[in-house]
Each structure stands twice: as C-alpha cells, then as structure tokens.
Write a structure and sequence with these properties.
Pfam families: FAD_binding_4
Largest sheet: 8 strands, antiparallel
Helix content: 25-40%
CATH class of one domain: Alpha Beta
InterPro entries: FAD-bd_PCMH, FAD-bd_PCMH-like_sf, FAD-bd_PCMH_sub1, FAD-bd_PCMH_sub2, FAD-linked_Oxidoreductase, Oxid_FAD_bind_N, Oxy_OxRdtase_FAD_BS
Distance between the termini: 37 Å
CATH architecture of one domain: 3-Layer(aba) Sandwich
Number of strands: 19
Family: Belongs to the oxygen-dependent FAD-linked oxidoreductase family.
Shape: globular
Keywords: FAD, Flavoprotein, Oxidoreductase
Mean pLDDT: 84
GO molecular function, one term: oxidoreductase activity
Number of helices: 16
Structural class: alpha+beta
Low-confidence stretches: 1-87
CATH topology of one domain: Vanillyl-alcohol Oxidase, Chain A, domain 3
Length: 535
C-alpha cells in the first residue's frame, strides 16, 4: 500500500482507551453509555418540517437544534439516574474529553476563541455553528472517544470535514472536525483506496493518479470525499461508472453508542446498505475503501457562451444529450460572472451559459460528440485532453469558503428542457445548473445500496450568489424549482439537499425512506446524530 500523510500518534493513546466496555445483556449496549433523558423529551421523536422552518425563520438563519428526536433545551444534559439533574457544559467538561483524545478540545466559553472558531468553521459561511464543544480529531480513535463521551454526557454529535454538506447550523452538542484525517492509502494491485474522513477530492486525485487510477470524484476539489460518497456522490464520471457510493467496498464506522465497526457486505450488511447513499445519520464514518477506476486522462473542459443565446444553447445541449454515450457527461449552467481578476476578462461581469464536458475516450470522438455545441459562437473554449488531476477545472467551482443558499429538484424526461428558457433571468440572484444523468447512474451495483431517485434523468440545482439577500434569493430559487415540480421524481438527490433542510426523506423513494428510518431508529435510538437531516 502506498501511503500519504500518516496521522501522528500520541503515547497516551492505548488499546485500552479504544476498548468498548462489555455490552449490557438487557440493553444490547455498554452499561455506562445508556443515555437517560427527561420523560418529556424521550417521547418526542420529531418536529414537523413546518415547525423546523418556522424556528429557522424566527432565528434569522437556520440555527436548528432539532431534526428528528430533538432535545429540549440544548444545555440540559442528563447523566446518571435518580433525579436526572441537568448538567451545564463547561471548561471542566472539555478537559474530561481532552484527557481521552489526541486531538485538542475547545468549549464555547473558552479563552481560546481562535481554536474554537477555527474548529467550528466550514465552507458554508451562512451557517454559524455554535456547538458546546469542538474536538479536532487527529486519529480515527478520537472520533470514537468523542462519541462515547457524548453519549455519557447526553450530548448530540455532528461530524464535519470541509463543511460543504452542512444544511443547517448546529447549536449545542459536540462537533467533531475530521479535517486532519486526510490519509489516502492506495493498493494499486487491488485497485482499492482507503480514504479517511477528512480527505478532499483533491487529496484523492493526488494519491491515485500516480498509479493511473482515480475515484469518481465530484465537481469541486475541496469537497470531503467520504461525506460526498455517503450522500451518493454524483460526479463527472457518473454516467460511465455510477455513483461514488456504488464503488464503496467497506467502511470503518463508529456507532452512536461508541462501538468501532468494520462494515461490508459480509459484516453488518444492513448498515453497509444504508450508509452508501443514506448519508451520515446511521453512524460516524472514519474511512471508506473504494474500488478505483483505471483512468489517467480525459477529454474535458468548458464551453462558454453569451447568455442571450440561451434558447439556442439549450436546444444544442438537448441534441447532445439525446445521443450521448455513457462515456460523455454534460451539464449546463447559466450565471453572471463577477468582475474579479480571477475570472477571464472575456467573461467578467457577463451573463453566460457554461457547458461542462467530461468525455472518457479519444479526443477526436469527443470533439465530434460536442460539435453541435461548438457550432454556436463561443466566448471561451477550454475543452481539451487533460490529466485526471485537472478534473475539478471542468466545473471551476469556488474553492474558498462563502455563504451558500441552494435549492434543487431531480427531474424525469426532457420536458424540463422545454421549460428552461422561460426560467432564465440575467438578473436572477443565483446560478442555475442542469446536469444530465442516466447511464450507469441508473444501474444498481452488485451490492445494492440506498442511493435514491436513480430514475432521474436531469438534476436542476440553484445556488445564490454571495452577498445577495438570502431571503429574496431563496424565494426566487423556490419559484424556479416550483415551476418544475410536476416533473420531479419526488424530491432532490441527497447530495443536493436544499439549504436549511431538516429532513432528507424526500431524497428517497417511499420504500427506501421507510427502511432508512427503521435503520436510524435501530442504530441511533437516542438520536445522538440529531443534527444530520432526519430520515
């Protein structure tokens, strides 16, 4: 195995620290990890979506401590039995956790605000996370120690790598940041990589490319690969190779009661099914084993057009996707580029149509496949043969943290393209993107998983520009997705869950949603992972 970036170890960390106590025979979980809550809370499993949204509006942003099984009063912790007195989280509580971990721990009343603020920060600057405690995991066992401690203290837990997938703000509880867990180990002979929870798509590409291999990464280089894959993982290689979740062969996880498990089709198969596509509600994932793809280069890049040619461009796009082989992935976005030096001069301040191209084959055939698009006058053409490590340049997604407000809907049929021209607005406060799906994305893998809405043929996604009024942008975005609602397959794809969403059940067909909810109740009966969108 070729290795990169081995996490540092600490002499105080022993196998004894990682050991899980003997399970109680009656409860099926460690005796001292039983989570006792007030009776009024124990019976409350879920708030309605309407209640959650009303709370978000009242707070001025999506700072929700709710979701399924919300605890009442974030700082009221119940430990032990008897009177079940609440316990205030303090610096002393942080010190208790720090004694068990390699990584540092901060509480929100600590003098070291720099450490706390750095630990809670993520890509989406619209979310102001305010956890009681932040643990910066340095080794995978820190995650297990943190979750066991949280169960003892009655704290909820959220894991965050880069923060791209956060949909609502965390208030209270324990936030475990995994951004230091960036190791990617590659076994070229088996074509398998073990990818740690904090590794980004860029980390994965850098580790696999020297072996002539790659993983089905997404459009943004800075996204955490593990969390992206758990949500399904829709990337530019998807039409040829399926969802990223389809290529997961094993997972290293920590359950809500602190057990460390190796999960595969042979071991804990229902958890193996649910985690691959079901997101992070069932367990905390510290690493995944991924089957790699032999690929060193591709024909890809961007075609940029004046946005006033939107109708012509949409028709040319339609003609391409109707005959597209699985090896060709296309998407189209309409946006106004900012006037900044990092944007090519010909695009600055202009409303443009941007077609993204990724073709896994010979350049000559790729050029023929997109000839209809190139027949229109272009402002810029960057499509070329490129190394797979440049894959993120195709979409050219933002790399730096920014406020994010999104909406999305997965669609069936070409009728969405008929309606798209009427939805284009040069003055819209958001980017509008449409991705072509189908191909291998429709296929169930050899070991079926929980990826929802495989029948979707198109995915529409909107993202508000930084600096725009969030309320106004969100309303405009809803008008666009609402205009296409009758063409929806039933909801969004899990990777594209709209901002502020407290419930992800619409990301799955009804039968899948019911099964995932059952698994969530079984594997996290006390709702330790309460901040993950409910299933």
């Amino acid at each position: 195995m070729a290795r990169r970036r081995r996490p540092r170890l600490h002499p105080r960390h022993t196998d004894h620290d990682r050991a899980v106590p003997r399970a109680d025979r009656l409860q099926g979980r460690p005796r001292h990890l039983r989570l006792l809550r007030p009776r009024a809370v124990r019976g409350q499993r879920r708030r309605s979506d309407g209640d959650a949204r009303a709370h978000a509006r009242g707070a001025g942003h999506d700072r929700l401590a709710a979701g399924r099984g919300a605890r009442l009063g974030v700082l009221q912790r119940t430990v032990g039995s008897g009177a079940r007195r609440g316990r205030q989280v303090s610096g002393a509580t942080a010190a208790l956790l720090a004694a068990r971990t390699v990584g540092p721990v901060w509480d929100r009343s600590a003098d070291d605000r720099a450490g706390y603020d750095a630990g809670r920060s993520g890509f989406n600057l619209a979310l102001d996370h305010r956890p009681d405690l932040v643990l910066a995991a340095q080794v995978p066992s820190d995650v297990a120690a943190g979750i066991r401690f949280a169960a003892e203290q009655g704290l909820t837990v959220e894991l965050q790598a880069t923060g791209h997938g956060a949909h609502r703000a965390m208030d209270g509880g324990l936030l475990i940041t995994t951004r230091a867990l960036t190791e990617v180990s590659v076994d070229p002979a088996r074509r398998v990589a073990r990818i740690s929870a904090g590794a980004t798509s860029a980390d994965v590409l850098a580790a696999t490319a020297p072996h002539g291999l790659t993983a089905p990464v997404g459009s943004a280089a800075t996204v955490g690969y593990v969390s992206y894959s758990l949500g399904g993982g829709l990337g530019m290689l998807g039409r040829a190779h399926g969802y990223a979740a389809d290529r997961i062969r094993a997972l290293q996880v920590v359950t809500a009661d602190g057990r460390e498990l190796s999960v595969s089709s042979e071991h804990h198969p229902e958890l193996f099914w649910g985690l691959r596509g079901g997101g992070g509600k069932l367990a905390a994932v510290t690493a995944i084993d991924v089957e790699l793809i032999p690929l060193s280069e591709l024909y890809g890049g961007g075609l940029f057009f004046d946005g006033v040619r939107g109708v012509e461009l949409i028709e040319a796009f339609r003609s391409c996707i109707v005959t597209a082989p699985r090896e060709l992935s296309l998407s189209i976005a309409f946006l106004r580029f900012p006037r900044v030096p990092t944007v090519p001069e010909t695009l600055r301040g202009r409303y443009c149509g941007h077609v993204r191209v990724a073709y896994l084959g010979e350049a000559a055939r790729g050029a023929r496949l997109i000839a209809g698009l190139r027949a229109l006058p272009t402002l810029l053409d960057t499509v070329r043969t490129m190394p797979v490590t440049d894959l993120a340049s195709v979409h050219a997604d933002p790399r730096n943290p920014m406020p994010v407000c999104t909406d999305s809907v997965a669609l069936r049929g070409e009728r969405a393209l008929d309606r798209l021209p009427a939805l284009l607005d040069p003055d819209a406060p958001f980017v509008l993107e449409l991705r072509h799906l189908g191909g291998a994305l429709v296929d169930q893998p050899a070991h079926p998983n929980a990826v929802g809405h495989r029948a979707a043929e198109l995915n529409l996604f909107t993202s508000a520009y930084p600096g725009t009024d969030r309320g106004g942008a969100a309303a405009a975005q809803r008008r666009v997705t609402g205009a296409l609602a009758e063409l929806s397959v039933g909801g969004p794809l899990r990777n594209f869950l709209p901002s502020g969403a407290a419930d992800a059940s619409a990301c799955y067909e009804p039968g899948l949603a019911v099964e995932l909810a059952r698994l969530a109740t079984r594997w996290d009966p006390s709702d330790v992972f309460a901040f993950a969108p409910a299933l």
